[in-house]
Amino acid sequence: MENQLASHARLWVFTSNKILSSEQCVFIESEMGKFLQGWNNHGKAMAGKAWVEMNRILVVAADENIMLASGCSIDKLNREILRLGDALGVNLFDRLTVLFQENEEIQTESIAHFWALRKANRLTDETLVLDTSVASFGEWESSKWKPFANTWHKDMYGR
Q1: Which structural domain range is residue 120 located in?
Q2: Which of 77, 68, 118, 91 is closest to 19 using CA atoms?
Q3: 81 and 110, same domain (yes or no)
Q4: What is the C-alpha separation between 61 and 36, in angstroms, rounded?
Q5: Domain contains 1
Q6: Mean pLDDT over residues 98-115, rounded?
Q7: Pair 74, 53 in one domain
Q8: Which residues are CB-neighbours of 113 under 8 A, at least 6 positions away?
């Protein structure tokens, strides 16, 4: 990514329920660029960046050393993500979708089917799972993919 972010930058991760075309990725990044230019917290500018990874993952970052994200600014971000999804006919806001790696390819499943695959032993403790709960850019860069055994899924699995 151009213009490297500080490792402490706060992160929000959104996954698409469909693989995005190159044109859709360009559209999202362009629209997010426009949004971020006006993104603010009670009139004070936020410093943010957004990008699409793997034609499926939208990442938004904000340097909270410049301005903290408030409930209002996060609500604005969420509304923009919903708007973009509606414009493209994709769901960027589904928190019940899991991305994981199988045979070196990215797979997407509903959380229920993902856990069923684990129960059927198709997935193991070593299966790499995208951690959409990472909170900082540094964490994203170093450990966005985690073995199943090191994710919250391990704690929830079987309950």
Answers
A1: 97-156
A2: 91
A3: no
A4: 10
A5: no
A6: 90
A7: yes
A8: none
What's the whole-model pTM score? 0.88
* Residue 49 CA: distances (Å) to CA of 66, 71, 105, 107: 13, 18, 27, 26
**Is there a single domain that holds both residue 142 and residue 106?**
yes
Q: Residues 38-79: pLDDT tens digits? A: 887 777 777 789 999 999 999 999 987 666 677 888 899 999
108 and 58 both lie in a single domain? no
Kindly give, in sequence order, each residue whose CB lies less than 8 Å from that of residue 102, ignoring residues fewer than 6 positions away: 122, 123, 127
Residue 137 and residue 75 share a domain: no
Q: What are phi and psi of 46, to 5 degrees?
A: -95, 150
Confidence of residue 3 (pLDDT cuts 50, 70, 90): low
Q: How many domains does the chain have?
A: 2
Q: Is residue 56 a contact partner of residue 108, using CB atoms and an 8 Å limit? A: yes
